[in-house]
Design brief:
The chain is an alpha/beta fold and about 350 residues long. Helices cover about 45% and strands about 15% of the residues. Strands 4-3-2-1-5-6-7 form a seven-stranded parallel beta sheet, with helices on both faces. A four-stranded antiparallel beta sheet has the order 8-9-11-10.
Length: about 350
């Protein structure tokens, strides 16, 4: 049997012929990406990766494909992920607060994503109601995987791996709300903060919430200040990445204000492009340049039309600048200022 390199023209042609059998014949970027995935799979076999490694990668790819397929059926609505303990009783003030918060968000058109289990996750789904909820459950040997509210719903997705589940939370969220919880909740909040601090995900509003007169986040923030900030493990600007909400109403107000003028962002080569729902004036742009020079690698912030590489939201006004790819807490403050004008 003849042997070829994976990138050999004959191998690529064979893959393209295989794709034509399932109806794909156009020469598109999407087709090229699928070709690359098949090439990577062939490399795994040629390089003799062991069975355990192949199982993990195969199952992870299957989980991601299925989850994206479900979410892709529900485009158009903004979504908020709600994190918190699976062990919170239904009579607890945090449970009551989570249910009221998700209900208020749902009344304003938001869909809710939770872990699908009991506790805060069940409260989030009860408040937003089943039709406006996604459940991202994880298989565990010692806790209930799925609560009774979301059980059997087509928007319930059960994961084997935490990392694929986390990816779905982050890639489909427009905001994050975190209620008190244990190791899992701390893992989620610190991972979200790390991703934003390092620019590995788009900036989103993060609100910390709990029941009336609760002290959980006071103690958490005291630790963040006295240990992480004082010792220099984080910068003062990183404190802009989250908001400790004093009430449910203030949390909802904070999330909505984030999208008051700001719409979205993306990088085009060296430029960070901030898309807005309403334009800024030249005086406001001048103020941003004076207030946030720390964000600039070179040049200055300018209003601009869509870049040729952009294909989305072409009707929206834009602010663009050469970002230094650092200081994302300060970038979060910039977004706040854009919304304040």
């Amino acid at each position: 049997m003849p042997q070829f390199e994976i990138n050999d023209e004959k191998v690529v042609k064979a893959i393209q012929d295989l794709m034509s059998l399932v109806g794909e014949t156009n020469d598109t970027l999407e087709m090229d990406l699928v070709v690359q995935m098949i090439q990577t799979s062939l490399k795994l076999y040629i390089e003799k990766h062991d069975t355990g490694q192949l199982k993990l990668m195969t199952r992870a790819l299957k989980e991601m494909r299925y989850a994206y397929r479900i979410f892709n059926q529900y485009t158009g609505s903004q979504r908020i992920s709600i994190f918190g303990s699976a062990r919170t009783p239904e009579t607890h003030i945090d449970y009551i607060a989570a249910k009221a918060f998700s209900s208020l968000m749902a009344s304003q058109g938001w869909m809710c994503i939770t872990g699908g289990a009991d506790g805060i996750m069940k409260a989030g789904i009860e408040g937003s109601e089943r039709n406006s909820s996604f459940g991202l459950s994880i298989k565990l040997p010692f806790e209930i995987t799925t609560n009774t509210v979301i059980a059997g719903d087509p928007k319930l997705i059960i994961f084997r791996y935490f990392f694929t589940r986390k990816l779905m939370f982050m890639s489909h969220s427009d905001a994050i709300a975190v209620f008190p919880g244990g190791f899992g909740t701390m893992d989620e909040i610190f991972e979200v903060l790390t991703l934003m601090q390092t620019g590995k995900t788009t900036l989103l509003p993060i609100v910390l919430l709990e029941g009336e007169n609760g002290k959980y986040w006071d103690h958490w923030e005291e630790y963040v200040h006295k240990q992480l900030l004082v010792n220099g493990w984080i910068s003062k600007e990183d404190l802009h990445l989250y908001y400790k909400a004093p009430s449910i109403d203030k949390a909802v107000e904070h999330i909505n204000k984030f999208y008051q003028r700001y719409h979205s962002q993306r990088y085009v080569k060296d430029y960070l492009v901030i898309r807005m729902k309403a334009p800024l004036t030249n005086d406001q742009v001048a103020q941003l340049n004076r207030q946030f020079p720390k964000l600039l690698k070179s040049g200055e912030m300018q209003l601009c039309p869509p870049f040729p590489e952009e294909t989305d939201f072409l009707n929206l006004p834009r602010l663009a600048f050469i970002h230094n790819r650092q200081n994302f807490g300060t970038l979060r403050a910039l977004i706040d200022q854009i919304n304040e004008f």
